Amino acid sequence: MWEADDDLDRAAGSGIGDGDASHNGQSSGELAEGAMATKISTDDELAALKRELMHAQKMASLGELVGTTTHEFNNVLMTIINYAKLGMRNKDEPSRDKAFDRILAAALRAEKITNAVLGMARNRSEEFAPTELERLVDESLLLLEREMQKYRVQVRKEFAAAPPVRAVGNQIQQVLLNLMTNARQAMASGGEMVLRIAHDAQTGFVDLTVRDSGCGIPREQLPKIFDRFYTTKAGPDATGKGGTGVGLSACREIVEAHQGRLRVESSVGKGTAFTVRLPVWQEKSESAAATPIAPLGVPNSLASSATPTSLGT
Fold first, then answer.
1. Which helix or strand (DSSP H or E) is residue 201 part of?
2. What is the DSSP string of 223-287?
3. What would the pLDDT profile of 178-217 be if each residue is shown by its tens digit?
4. Helix (H, G, I), strand (E, B) or coil at 100
5. What is the rounded average pLDDT of the residues 21-32?
6. Which PANTHER family does the protein's record reference (predicted)?
7. Above 50 in pLDDT, residue 113?
């Protein structure tokens, strides 16, 4: 088993090349001022690029969500239409009863999908607030349920009692959807995905784990998987998802912005588990109006890069 962490205590570092002050007549002070101005300009440009990149990733995730939701609604509509036609063709009572039952079941599923989407819309606030992880998991599962069935992925939930976490709901849901999609893609021939919620009362954190029984990640790739644009995939899958090398990097930055931690452990041929660790919502220490989250994609260290440690167990 090999593990990797993102390092939440990374320090920013940016080297400025030495120059020969005597060559151009500039004093060391002038050189320092020029170098500082260049660094500030570079940092501003880097921050702007990161914001654009994260916005693009957010739009890509939204596009995937819209595509998934549209596909789910289309399935529901086809069920309703087909059984309505069946009921119209067959006048006998048993056939009509069966058609009505299937139409009702499809309509109830449509209601659940609508409620899940509305729930996500309610999570659009960019402020920290008490967030129930179990609810986010259930909403995400509903949207990906048909996809899991199509690829023969069995889903098992292991939810321990856990308090709300301090989070921006829509951002953590983006992380969750990304990790669940990755898990499904890792099991090309089907398998099992385990979703686990556990509360560590001693540390004041809640762990959300997404574990698959797929191909696993080779040891030499683990230290790189949180690097921006690094991907273990050849490209998007048949559903058009993944392969950009941006998803896990975005997940890491979102979790960091929550003062959390993202951890991965993997065994080749056995599977991979990603664990998101988030702080518990502390009612006494939080203001009634939640604190706005920092702009997505601009972590405290502009020069940060993942340098995870690989450990053998």
1. none
2. GGTTSTT--SSSS--TTS---SS-HHHHHHHHHHHTT-EEEEEEETTTEEEEEEEEEBP-TTTS-
3. 899 999 999 989 999 999 999 999 999 999 999 999 999 8
4. helix
5. 51
6. SENSOR HISTIDINE KINASE, TWO-COMPONENT SENSOR PPRA
7. yes
**Burial of 278 from C-beta contacts in 10 A (0-12 / 13-18 / 19+):** buried
Place of tokens 């069995």: 154
| β pairing state of 311-312 and 2-5 | antiparallel
pLDDT at 27: 56
- In order of 76, 78, 86, 100, the CA distances from 95 in angstroms are 19, 18, 8, 9
Please determine, for residue 24, whether its predicted confidence score (pLDDT) is greater than 60. Answer: no
Distances (CA, A) of 61 to 96, 102, 161, 244: 41, 32, 29, 12
Pairing of strands 205-212, 129-131: unpaired
- What is the distance of C-alpha 266 from the center of its chain? 18
Annotated domain spans of the chain: 47-312
Cα 227–chain centre separation = 15
Phi, psi (degrees; rounded to nearest 5) at 177: -60, -40
Residue with tokens 């939701």: 69
Count CB neighbours of 310 within 10 A.
13
Q: Please, which pLDDT band fits residue 275 given cuts at 50, 70 and 90? A: very high
pTM (2 d.p.): 0.61
Q: Which residue type occupies 134?
A: E
- 133 residue type, one letter: L
Pick the CATH number of 47-312 from 3.40.50.720, 3.60.21.10, 3.30.565.10, 3.40.50.300: 3.30.565.10
Nearest to 86 by CA among 74, 103, 72: 103
Return the structure tokens found at 113. 């999908």
- Taking the C-alpha atoms of residue 64 and residue 164, their distance in angstroms, rounded to an integer, is 27
pLDDT value at 10 more than 70: no
Residue 6 reports pLDDT greater than 50: no
